[in-house]
Amino acid sequence: MFPARFRRQYSAAVGAALWAAAAACASTPDAAWPLRVLADVPLSGHATRWDYASIDPTTHRLFLAHLGDDVVTVFDLDRRRVIADVPGVRRVHGVLAVPALGRIYASATGTDELVAIDAHSLKVVARTPAGDYPDGIAYVPRAGKLYVSDEHGGTDSVIDARSHRRLATIDLGGEVGNTQFDPVSGHVFANVQTRGELAEIDPATDTVVARIRLPGAEGNHGLFIDAPARFAFIACEGNDRLLVLDLRTRRVVASFDTGGDPDVLAMDPALGWLYVASESGEVALFEVKGRQVRPLGRAVLGPNAHVVVVDPATHLAYFPLKAWRGAPVLRITAPRPARPHA
């Protein structure tokens, strides 16, 4: 298997070629595809890589990790424009809004820190060491702790969200992908992508209480916990698969094809739609109803469209694109209106 960085470069190149071919054939995705492109809004900065995104529903702002520009870009969802770029977050990967604390947290792999940003002043208020190549971020409200994936160091760093002190370092035994909090169990789950495992962490003790084997996983990096359905959705960048893990039985119950090198997952809870964005630019869409998961289709949405975030209040999905006609844009999509039955 090629190293992840080479697979991503290859997938991005293939995705750009696929998108160019699709654009030459049609101006819109196939009519059966349940999404429509609503707008392309200019973003600030250079045509460099974007990473994770997070919405603060209290301020109606979208926070975007502009990895290639070393900034967190702040986008006003109501006015649909960039209002600020928070500088000094070198090689920013993960970003997470925590409205209850009035904070935005960002992982800076260039300095191996977790950076805390005030959600209103948009000023950096704290920096905390967070291992070697910090990436995904999860917040546990009751414990008041942040869990930061340390991809190269093979750990999760535990940080007090109020004092910004590092409380613990949890050895996970392999490269760590995304980390997510499950409000039902009260536990944190982390992808151990070089071992094909999902590690379960108890925030009361900051210890690993279970290691769940993921048959069929190669490079399990992306992660989304659907707490009501009791599913963990796992994107495997090594073999382009989405695994569905039943959190009640701790067994993989389904596996689906995705676009090349799947990365970020997001969900519209009211519609029950799960988005899987890929480095290739192809987006796979699934419907989750009760205990049933079914694919709704796949389409190339844009070059390097590997990041997605959904606003549950409006059902709009946002995809930062590195370069559309030479400049970065935020591609906004909406569900197509349901067609009346004949």
Automatic annotation (TrEMBL):
PROSITE patterns: PROKAR_LIPOPROTEIN
Source taxon at top rank: Bacteria
Keywords: Signal
Range of residues in the leader sequence: 1-26
PANTHER family found in the cross-reference section: DIHYDRO-HEME D1 DEHYDROGENASE, PROTEIN NIRF
Name of protein: YncE family protein
Species of provenance: Fulvimonas yonginensis
